[in-house]
Design a protein that fits this description.
single chain, Polyprenol monophosphomannose synthase, 8 helices, 239 residues, Glyco_trans_2-like, transferase, alpha/beta, dolichyl-phosphate beta-D-mannosyltransferase activity, two-stranded parallel sheet, 18% strand
Amino acid sequence: MEKLVIIPTYNEKDNIRQIIGAVFSLQQDFHILIVDDGSPDGTGGIVKELQAQHPGQLFLEERKGKLGLGTAYIHGFKWALARQYQYIFEMDADFSHNPQDLVRLHDACAYKGADVAVGSRYVKGGKTENWPWDRAVLSYGASVYVRLVTWMPVKDATAGFVCYKRAVLEKIELDRIQFVGYAFQIEMKFTAWKLGFKIAEVPITFIDRKEGYSKMSKGIVKEGILGVLKIQWQSLFGK
């Protein structure tokens, strides 16, 4: 048990079977943990059906209600640490993240000295596809804003395609992570950086989802804007 891919889900029945198949087709000994927030569309039931085909490799944690992306990942991180996984990944269910890039993220941590590997849209070689212009402007603007406020040397701080070495998640006080949306991703990277861990960005192509619906909301954007200010304020002046 070395590599675990955590995939949070809410109403992903159109994607879940395919994304699980794509990860296992890599034949790189990845295990998968689905953290499903009580999807009313039956996502959890599909995962249970597939578990029979992948015993000891595919796991499901079901939560009651939509509790937020950040809390889903924290749940998954604790689950992974309790089971001694060495490399823990975050990935979306909707194919906006190419499963084949999991190997590159792993290699950055396993062989190239990174403690955290970020699948980045905004380093050389990274890009986005099929995004509406307003979403692209919002995302890139957010990345610039985060660097200006936090001084963190990460160009894609809101990225949700990440590999963490076990040591990083052991050192971070997961119960003190405050945010659940965009700001969760920023807070995790910022905390790792402040603890002295090395963050590397691996260029990826981010492709807008083809099935299902985006979970982006005004509340998540607001949390990102205000959360970044709070993260830096607390860093500078203490909690």
